[in-house]
Amino acid sequence: MNNDEIKNAFEAKYQLYGDMLYKIAFVYLGNHHDAEDALQEVFIKLLYGSPSFKDIEHEKAWLIRVTQNKCLDMLRSSAKKNVSAGDITLVDGARTDSDTRLDVIKQVAALPAKYKTAVLLYYYYGCSVDEISRTLKISSSAVKQRLKRAREVLKIELEDYSYEA
User: Fold this and answer.
1) Residue 11, Cβ neighbours under 10 Å: how many?
2) Cβ-count burial of 102 within 10 angstroms (0-12 exposed, 13-18 middle, 19+ buried)?
């Protein structure tokens, strides 16, 4: 491949996965700058250190895992083991329909990492339990358990909204 072909292939990958991976990083890290840094490092790893992929699903799973691992590394290295929900800001230009939406985003961001990833992939990106299982390399029952526990935590944290019409 010549440089133009590499550049075009890289841009296509960024268009395909960039938004999804940025959102995952943002929810993990809680701010735009760190999410952008994580995304940049993930794509550098894709460009210079990725394995051969069997198919597009394998590539997507690899990118999600690399993003997740990079975010966890960044959290550990900066001693931000728990991102405070109060520190979360919305993506530039994002608009919320209500305070409820913002509260839900904050509560999802405050979930433990293993629950957060399952919730993001299932509810925000529409991945099936089987897809999440393959991506995270855990059993389908483990994915279901993580989703169940995340819902339980969110139900408790957001119970004030259960009485609103």
Assistant:
1) 11
2) middle
